[in-house]
Amino acid sequence: MPGAAAAAGAACGGGGAAMLPAPEAAKLYHTNYVRNSRAIGVLWAIFTICFAIVNVVCFFQPYWIGDGVDTPQAGYFGLFQFCTEVGISRQVACVGSFADFAAIPSGAFQAASFFIGLSMVLIIACIVCFILFFFCSTATVYKICAWMQLAAAACLVLGCMIYPDGWDAEEVKKMCGEKTDKYTLGACSIRWAYILAIIGILDALILSFLAFVLGNRQDSLLAEELKLENKGWHLQSEVKLLWQSIEREAVLQIGRTKAMKGLVCFSQ
Fold it and tell me: What rounded mean pLDDT belongs to the chain?
């Protein structure tokens, strides 16, 4: 029993010796906190660039809806460009351009093109704002980008919701059949670009939420750094005052010693 108690005491003593002092533990936690925030920030920037690529692809590719097995005509539609069979050769020819906005076959397609294009511009502007990390507060830049990404997500939602309202256009009915109507595709089917745009909405919302979190973490990190600086300044002030009081006490002690020597000499 005494041996077990001694071993337990030694183990407790060893555990106590292994613990870091409070200031060193706080400094280590602060270092890990900064390192993790930077790593997450780099991942956020990489995925933001990936989302921008997805957005550009969705905007320019004409594969939002396409023909099926029973469609009277082969082809596929995008936001502002559509491709259908031409002539006896059954070759697919594409027409339409965002520059020729009035030629887009449906008002709903025009609105969807505008909102998806605005989403693309916003996310590209967000990437350009990465330059501000060298000149402005990190927390401020994160929050600016977060609002841009949230606005880009809202534009994507509007574009994806408005786009089916144009399925009753004559060009779509020629390809998909007479049963095609608003929000009803008839014999056609949704293609990969439309699905990618819907996935992009979720991606933009996650990136926006992450940017807000990173911005708030940077604010708290700055507050902790200011607190540490204030603590260091107060500690330096206290040490300086203590040193000044020691110096005054030493001067007074020297003065007393000289006075005592003078009295001794005078008495002799």
Answer: 79
